[in-house]
Amino acid sequence: MSFEQLLSLGLLVAGITHFGVLLAGVQAPKQLNWAEEVPRMSRFNQKILIVYYLFTGVTIVMFGSLTLYLRDEILDKDPVASLLALAIGVWWTARILVDIFIFDHKDWPEGKKYIVGHVVLTSGFVGMAGVMLTAGVNGLGWV
Known about the structure:
This protein is mostly helical. The chain has one domain (3-139). The protein has helices at 3-31, 34-37, 43-69, 71-75, 79-101, 112-139. It is elongated, with a radius of gyration of 17 Å. The mean pLDDT is 96.
C-alpha cells in the first residue's frame, strides 16, 4: 500500500475510533460508581463534572464526524482540513500525556476488565493521535 492509501485507511479507522471511545465514555458513570461518588461533591462541582463530561463527549463526536466528513480534504492537503487534523492530533496527544502524568494507575478500579479497558482506550488514543498528527503534518507540508 502507498502512504496515501495507508493514510486514507488510517483516517477512516481514526474517525470510527472516536465513536468507539464514546462507548467507554457512556459506561463511565456506572463503572466508576458515579451514583454514589458524585452526590458527595458540592452541587457546583457536580455541575462542573457533568458539563465537562458532556462537552468532552460532544467534542469527540465532532472530531470523529469531521475526520470522516473531511477525509478527502485532509488527503488532498487542504490547509484548513490539515490544521484541523493537526489540532485533533494535538488534543489526543494531550490526553495521552494526562494519562501518563496526571492519572495514577493505582487510582484505577481493580480488575482485569479495567486493565484491558485502559489498554484498549490508550491504544485508541495513541492511534488517533498518530494518524491525525501525521495527516496534519503531511497536509501542511512539514515533512
